[in-house]
Amino acid sequence: WMKKFVRNLIVSTIMSLAIMASVILAKGLLPGLLPTVFGAIGNLSRGVLDPISRLATNVFSNLRSLHEMATRLWRLPTNIVGHTLGVAGSGEIARANINGIYTYEDNMFDNPATTFGDAVLYQPGTSPIEADTTLGNIGRNIHVYQVEAVHVMQGRLLGPLYLPLHIVSGTISIVIGAVTFLPPHKWWHEYNFMEHLTHNPNAPYGGGADIEMP
């Protein structure tokens, strides 16, 4: 048993000395070693993550650009109609641009305002832009603007389908209005669901009267 005791004592002593040496060594090296290690890890992370971050940023930027291009193309047919009629009716390009909405005076239609895509054609005196204000200032007839702004949203959502749907809905409304002996000035709007959406706050792209002005 004496040999075993001596052997265990030697082993324990060596292990204790090793632990003490490790602690002393760590105290001397860690203050300088840890910043070096973490700095190397940080540099490695930046070297790996920064290119990935830049790549992701470029991808999302390109996707956003493609989305914007696609939405512009989606609205293009209706916008061509609107700007063509707007220039033909007013003899000039869009007078103002509010939230991407182009305003034309001197509407040729028998209606305070008519919307085609992003172009809104107003009769004289019904535009939200006062004749004597600077470009972009909001004037009168806020409600008219709010209703037409909903039609702009409908056009952006439906794209080339906006005009056909509006024409079909308006035609149905005219027929129902005629056979139910409504006054003619109500025929287009009374049963036209595209017009009802501009006054229904619970409908998608509806609630024109609640739109906040810019």
Describe this structure in words.
This protein has 214 residues and is α+β, with helices and mostly antiparallel strands. 62% of the residues lie in helices and 7% in strands. It contains five helices and four strands; from the N terminus they run αββββαααα. The chain has helices at 2-90, 142-158, 162-179, 187-190, 193-196, and strands at residues 96-98, 101-104, 113-116, 119-122. It has a four-stranded mixed β-sheet, with helices on both faces. A hairpin with a 2-residue loop joins strand 3 (113-116) and strand 4 (119-122). Helix 1 packs across helix 2. Mean pLDDT is 75; it is low at 130-137 and 203-214.
Keywords:
disordered C terminus, alpha+beta, 62% helix, rod-shaped, 214 residues, 5 helices
